[in-house]
Amino acid sequence: MLQTQQVLNDRYQLKQKLGERAGRQTWLAHDLLAQEKVVVKLLTLSDQVQWENLRLFEREAQVLKQLDHPRIPKYRNYFNIDQGMLWFGLVQEYIPGVSLKELLTQGRVFAEPEVRQIAADVLNILIYLHSLSPPVLHRDIKPSNLLLGEDSQIYLVDFGAVQDRAAREGATFTVVGTYGYAPLEQFGGRATPASDLYALGATLIHLLTGIPPADLPHKDSRLQFAHLVRLNPGFVRWLGQLTQPNLEKRFRSDREALFALKENQTAISTIPLSRPDESSIRIKKSPSRLQIQIPVLWRKVLGNPQNRTVLLVLGFWWYWISYLEGWHALIWLIAGAVLAGWLIVPSLMETHVYFNYQLFEIEVKLLGLRLKRQRGSVLEIDKVFKSDAGGYGTHKVPEVTFAVGVQEFSFSRLKPPLSEEECRWLIEEIKHWLGL
Fold first, then answer.
1. pTM higher than 0.85, yes or no?
2. For residues 304, 307, 311 and 317, what is the CA-based torsion angle, rounded to 10 degrees?
3. Which of 28, 60, 265, 392 is 20 to 30 A removed from 36 (C-alpha atoms)?
């Protein structure tokens, strides 16, 4: 039975037990030779501990010996002792700090900027690991294995599940990982570098929601978390791609994931274009909502010579109809209404566009009455761009369009149409808010 102040291998004096599970103990110790604090991980062979666990333990030691990264604890030593029970010891550099799991347990709430930085830090560590030959897969990324050091840096610890050999056809590997964080292919014994990306994504979602991924609702095997957080939609999409259950739809590499994360941050940081002079379009935005209103331009409706002429002609028309009787009057009345609608009604329509963290809505109203409404998922918007549609006559009307998968949703103003400058401005405002 190991005890505090006990000296192992004539060198490592045990100071504090950091963790314990079947056949394993982790201690904070003092290296009497190097005069420094170290972490000693111990494994004992017993009826409860199989030889496969010893193989993993030895692999961890061999892999750590080869690693050289400032955010990974450095290997110090490997030994075994026989004190009535055979113990194997792995000695690592001690990193003062606290695990992200401990912070979650203490009720720590992680904000989006913090989680973005953690994501970037871990991705840089994974780029190093996955670039080795052969690639080193951690296979157990989770909050308890990410340490926030006293220097405010993130460290990746506990390589007990590490794999340093590529999967071969027909080969069998020990199934390791933590349920909720490990992807399906890993439990099938086919871990890849993208498996670490999934675990990172599940970890980040845990930090943001405070809920372990195993306890989150699932739909089509995908983690459902967007309704629990208030994040930039682009960041939600990024997390969604990181945790795609389908390996083919996940980011292909950690470099690609980091590039996409930086692109999203750049989109958020970019200052949108200024509103064009004399534009009547009104925009209200907050971190949780974006509202766009394209109102009726009454001064242009009433000041338009064409509209005044049409109203004058229609006035004489209806005055003349008042002298008709029977179905003749009805026919001419319907014709006048159709003509008025074709010429004037487009000038009286206004458009409202709403965004929140999950949905967008486009409404077209006529004098306060809703004529048309379209809805879609904000998280599925792939692209925002300008398109041209048939307006009145042969005139092409500029429109702002969202690509949502194979569908497209557009909005514009028929009379007078949106200007090219207004289209560009609206597109930049929407892309900025979405983080595209």
1. no
2. 150
3. 60
